[in-house]
């Protein structure tokens, strides 16, 4: 078998075709390149070749058993069209456009071209191939093919030598466009056209083109060869008079056989085969696009061309000979692996073409080509050699069934064509052999590649193989991709090919996909470096400066500056220090010292801020408890942390009693003053000590406490001070249970600013909040997107601006630049918008300042670049760096990481992993579960969640916790929860199965959930279902959950 495959490959390289007709082996050698040794081997192995062709017609695309109908004489009368031809016919009649289905073949010709010889060569071409002079009139039985008797065709000729050289290029382009975009009526116009432009005495541009109803893409190679062979004959001294020899059969014979096939049982058998073969394969592929698919695509396509080189082809051929494969299968396998490594589905469909390598069709031009979806299964991390074997086997299998027109398959499997996306496959692969152009004495012919065409596919790889190397062209949709993105695809493909040609047994996860420059850029070049900071922070001791030291520094330098403004109550920095020192000493007396939790459940006021600072000065870790949260949730947090002290107000004290904890109830400045001596403490607080334990939603149904250290938080505050306003008046908006509150508070105090407290009622009412910002001269605001959007929507264009506003930091939710936000920032040109990203486990990891006019801001801005001493990695499923532009899971490292989850070592170990890319031993990285990618400028783009976690009002929510709570209700048999986005906002929808029919149940469920979960975790919609949708394997099918209706909303 291996010797036969080697012989067939050698025949292909020589341009020799083998065919089996009526049980006899036939040889085609149009280029006269068959050597005696190969001819002798073919003769000796003839019987084996015939047997191979019949047993495995797909093992080598150059050998096929002909259709029985081909043995009949070609009909001389009108022939019915194949179904695919009828599709093209109707499209042509509707659009009257000739340029849509095909790309012209353009050539630059240098030398003394004989114009008359050019005309005769065109005439000879039409005499040789009936299909080029065929009309497609409509009859009472539908459109038919009717070969035109004459072979005359109008050639568009224009002499541009008289045009000034400065305008000649433009006129050439205009002439070409005018010729190419002429209307086409298949009932009256020939499907073939030719053009010749004379640019100079010895410089010409020639173009040939044919409509797809008559000539498929692979036939173009034969068309070009035959035309230039005829031109050579006409321009040679020994002209061969008369028409070129015709092929054994004409296209009409194929059309007749194909129409008969479409009425035969064989078609039904092929349909059954494809139904089974494509079962389970997704119809749409997920590609790492630069832009989302629009509703009205232009279908404009571009090409990126590159070469593989002689050495690469030599290695691939050697590998194929050793393994018994073919070059085209090897290239297709590499392309499939490239797609998989760019985060496409592991089971994918790639469009292939059939029908163009039938040896009995050698010399034919016609509509033989058919496209079909080629299934590739790359699950379970196979070796590349296993992928190659799979593809070679699939080629052999599919070769028995590739006559089925794609339009039949689309209809049978319910995958109709759509304007915005190609059915079945959006990615294609084409491979062809290049044969030498006929030598024309005195002329140099250079093909000119067309830069753009119209295509409905998203991405494609075309590979042409000549005798010495491989020539690649990547077609891409300009609606989806930037040229630089596709250029990187090309670089990675070459690297991948070079790797697997040397090491074919590598698992696909270990195949190198990144060159050294790109890998360095991802792992080091785009990571944050030291940035300018205030001089006092830049000293040698600054690395260990805690936030409490920053506040002390401010108090020493500006003791009389207002640190906190709470309505009429104003505390300056001196008073802030005195009160916090006194309370810190008292907390230490109660045992709240280094690493001991202290729970804070306080109303929003200045004393809450003092208590927070005092807890940190004592060396303890504060645990924020929101008074609005249900008591069961608060008690779970207290049980998990076992705080030494619970600090609360009188109103909240009864619901927070714990026998093992001291409860300290404070309601006034006087009570704070009485707690202890205001002299500064000399507590030793190591940078690795815990500063706070902040609870987030947990996938187990229980909250988990993120333990953040002093060094990580000091790093954040130093960064914020260095890149923000000096002495800012900052609104204290965030709840202490939201990590942004720490950033608000200490970046303000560290920069000698004033923290302005806002009461809860004003905080939650956008109109009142706007007036508060204006009247209190707020300069800086930290808010989640939902709040910012509410402010923007309530702000009237005609009202006066918030004059002092200079900076808005948006974090906690994905930022959307809505029309309301655009109008708001147009009204406030002095205010800058900063988009920050970071989970609770790292706090802020990266940020982006939006620049320029708000009208040009992207709707979904990037989350930016890492802050100082932070590291960001986008890794694929194999924990390897994902290429630039390719989605992967986001991992965060550096000085920003939390210690882990409070007293949950197993969970900590699963999310905080060793960092294999860091230069410092023992470094860790946090697995965020977020999907992201780097853009070409090194900025991170947030793409959503890999799991079912969502963000509501800046809080991270695990739907498992909501489902677990809802499922505890005795009247609910089953439930599911999912996110629902509406008008740019994220909400929670619950789906409930219950036997009870009481119409008031939904309100009862909502109340019941509100008693157990924070308000932001209570679903907005409750949808009753008879049963939850399931996948075939029995799993919950969240995608099948219906969108909630307005009446199901609270």
Descriptive report:
The protein is an alpha+beta fold. It has six domains: 64 residues, no CATH class; 176 residues, Chloramphenicol Acetyltransferase, CATH 3.30.559.10; 229 residues, Chloramphenicol Acetyltransferase; 269 residues, ANL, N-terminal domain (Rossmann fold), CATH 3.40.50.12780; 110 residues, Rossmann fold, CATH 3.40.50.980; 94 residues, GMP Synthetase, Chain A, domain 3, CATH 3.30.300.30. 32% of the residues lie in helices and 23% in strands. The protein is built from 29 helices and 44 strands. Strand 30, helix 26 and strand 31 form a beta-alpha-beta unit. 43% of the residues are buried. About 2% of the residues have low confidence. It holds the Pfam family Condensation.
Mean pLDDT score, rounded? 85
Write down the Rg: 37 Å
Shape: elongated
Low-confidence stretches: 55-75, 356-360
| CATH H level, superfamily name of the largest domain | ANL, N-terminal domain
Amino- and carboxy-terminal Cα gap: 72 Å
- What is the helical fraction, as a range of percent? 25-40%
Give the oligomeric state of the chains in this entry, treating copies of one chain as homo and distinct chains as hetero. Answer: single chain
- CATH class designation of the largest domain: Alpha Beta
- The fraction of residues assigned to DSSP E strands is 15-25%
CATH architecture title of the largest domain: 3-Layer(aba) Sandwich
CATH topology of the largest domain: the name is Rossmann fold
What is the number of E strands? 44
Largest sheet: 5 strands, mixed
GO molecular function: catalytic activity; phosphopantetheine binding
Domain Condensation: 84-522
GO cellular component, one term: cytoplasm
Protein name: Amino acid adenylation domain-containing protein
């Amino acid at each position: 078998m291996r010797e036969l495959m080697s012989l067939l490959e050698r025949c292909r390289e020589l341009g020799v075709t083998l065919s089996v007709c009526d049980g006899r082996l036939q040889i085609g050698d149009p280029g006269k390149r068959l050597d005696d040794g190969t001819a002798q081997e073919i003769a000796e192995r003839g019987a084996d070749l015939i047997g191979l062709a019949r047993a495995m017609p797909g093992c080598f695309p150059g050998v096929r058993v002909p259709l029985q109908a081909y043995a009949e004489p070609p009909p001389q009368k009108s022939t019915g069209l194949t179904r695919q031809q009828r599709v093209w016919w109707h499209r042509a009649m509707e659009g009257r456009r000739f340029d849509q289905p095909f790309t012209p073949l353009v050539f630059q010709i240098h030398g003394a071209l004989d114009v008359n010889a050019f005309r005769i060569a065109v005439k000879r071409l039409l005499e040789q191939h009936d299909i080029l002079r065929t009309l497609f009139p409509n009859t009472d039985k539908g459109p038919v093919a009717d070969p035109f008797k004459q072979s005359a065709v109008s050639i568009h000729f224009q002499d541009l030598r008289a045009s000034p050289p400065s305008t000649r290029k433009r006129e050439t382009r205009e002439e070409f466009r005018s010729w190419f975009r002429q209307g086409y009526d298949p009932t009256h116009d020939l499907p073939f056209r030719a053009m010749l432009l004379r640019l100079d005495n010895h410089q010409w541009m020639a173009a040939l083109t044919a409509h797809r109803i008559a000539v498929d893409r692979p036939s173009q190679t034969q068309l070009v060869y035959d035309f230039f062979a005829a031109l050579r004959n006409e321009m040679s001294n020994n002209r061969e008079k008369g028409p070129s020899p015709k092929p054994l059969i004409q296209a009409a014979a194929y059309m007749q056989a194909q129409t008969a096939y479409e009425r035969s049982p064989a078609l039904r058998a092929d349909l059954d085969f494809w139904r089974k073969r494509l079962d389970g394969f997704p119809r749409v592929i997920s590609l790492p696009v630069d832009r989302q698919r629009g509703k009205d695509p232009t279908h404009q396509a571009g090409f990126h061309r590159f070469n593989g080189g002689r050495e690469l082809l030599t290695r691939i051929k050697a590998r194929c000979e050793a393994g018994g494969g073919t070059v085209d299968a090897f290239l297709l396998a590499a392309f499939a692996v490239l797609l998989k490594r760019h985060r496409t589905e592991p089971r994918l469909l790639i469009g292939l073409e059939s029908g163009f390598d039938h040896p009995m069709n050698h010399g034919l031009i016609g509509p033989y080509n058919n496209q079909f979806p080629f299934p590739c299964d790359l699950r379970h991390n196979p070796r590349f050699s296993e992928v190659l074997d799979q593809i070679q086997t699939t080629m052999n299998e599919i070769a028995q069934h590739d006559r089925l027109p794609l339009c039949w398959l689309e209809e049978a499997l319910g995958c109709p064509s759509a304007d915005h996306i190609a059915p079945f496959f959006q990615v294609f692969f084409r491979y062809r052999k290049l044969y030498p152009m006929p030598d024309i004495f005195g002329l140099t012919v250079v093909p000119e590649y067309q830069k753009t065409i119209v295509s409905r596919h998203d991405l494609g790889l075309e590979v042409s193989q000549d005798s010495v190397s491989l020539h690649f062209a990547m077609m891409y949709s300009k609606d989806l991709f930037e040229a630089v993105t596709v250029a990187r695809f090309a670089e990675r493909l070459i690297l991948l090919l070079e790797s697997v040609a040397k090491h074919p047994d590598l698992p696909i996860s270990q195949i190198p996909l990144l060159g050294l420059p790109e890998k360095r850029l991802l792992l080091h070049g785009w990571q944050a470096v030291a940035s300018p900071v205030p001089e006092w922070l830049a000293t040698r001791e600054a690395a260990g400066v805690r936030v409490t030291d920053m506040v002390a520094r401010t108090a020493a330098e500006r003791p009389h500056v207002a640190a906190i403004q709470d309505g009429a109550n104003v505390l300056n920095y001196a008073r802030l220090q005195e009160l916090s020192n006194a309370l810190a000493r008292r907390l230490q007396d109660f045992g709240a010292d280094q690493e001991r939790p202290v729970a804070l459940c306080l109303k929003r006021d200045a004393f809450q801020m003092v208590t927070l600072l005092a807890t940190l000065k004592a060396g303890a870790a504060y645990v924020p408890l929101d008074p609005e949260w249900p008591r069961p949730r608060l008690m779970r947090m207290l049980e998990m942390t076992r705080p030494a002290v619970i600090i609360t107000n009188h109103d909240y004290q009864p619901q927070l009693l714990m026998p093992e904890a001291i409860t300290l109830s404070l309601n006034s400045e006087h009570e704070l003053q009485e707690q202890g001596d205001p002299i500064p403490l000399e507590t030793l607080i190591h940078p690795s000590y815990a500063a706070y334990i902040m609870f987030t939603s947990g996938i187990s149904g229980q909250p988990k406490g993120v333990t953040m250290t002093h060094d990580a938080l000091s790093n954040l505050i130093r960064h914020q001070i260095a890149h923000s306003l000096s002495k800012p008046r900052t609104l204290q908006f965030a709840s202490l249970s939201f990590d942004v509150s720490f950033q608000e508070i200490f970046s303000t105090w560290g920069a000698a600013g004033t923290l302005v407290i806002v009461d809860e009622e004003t905080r939650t009412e956008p109109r009142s909040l706007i007036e508060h910002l204006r009247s209190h001269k707020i300069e800086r605001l930290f808010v989640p997107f939902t709040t910012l959007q509410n402010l923007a929507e309530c702000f009237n264009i005609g009202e006066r601006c918030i004059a002092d506003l200079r900076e808005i930091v948006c974090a906690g939710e994905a930022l959307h630049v809505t029309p309301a936000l655009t109008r708001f920032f147009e009204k406030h040109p002095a205010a800058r918008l900063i988009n920050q990203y970071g989970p609770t486990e790292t706090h802020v990891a990266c940020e982006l300042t939006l620049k320029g006019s708000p009208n040009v801001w992207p709707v979904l801005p990037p989350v930016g670049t890492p802050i100082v001493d932070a590291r960001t990695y986008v890794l694929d499923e194999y924990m390897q760096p994902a290429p630039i532009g390719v989605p992967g899971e986001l991992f965060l490292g550096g000085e920003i990481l939390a210690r882990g989850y409070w007293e949950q070592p197993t969970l900590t170990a699963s999310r905080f992993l060793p960092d294999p890319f860091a230069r410092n031993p023992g470094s860790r990285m946090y697995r965020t579960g977020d999907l992201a990618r780097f853009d070409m400028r090194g900025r991170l783009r947030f793409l959503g969640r890999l799991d079912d976690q969502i963000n509501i009002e800046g809080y991270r929510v695990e739907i498992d916790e909501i489902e677990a709570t809802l499922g505890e209700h005795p009247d609910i048999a089953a439930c599911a929860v999912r996110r629902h986005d509406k008008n740019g906002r994220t909400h929670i929808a619950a789906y409930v199965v219950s036997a009870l029919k009481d119409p008031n149940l939904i309100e009862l469920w909502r109340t019941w959930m509100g008693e157990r979960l924070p308000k932001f975790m209570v679903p907005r919609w409750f949808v009753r279902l008879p049963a939850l949708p399931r996948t075939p394997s029995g799993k919950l099918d969240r995608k099948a959950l219906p969108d909630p209706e307005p009446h199901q909303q609270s």
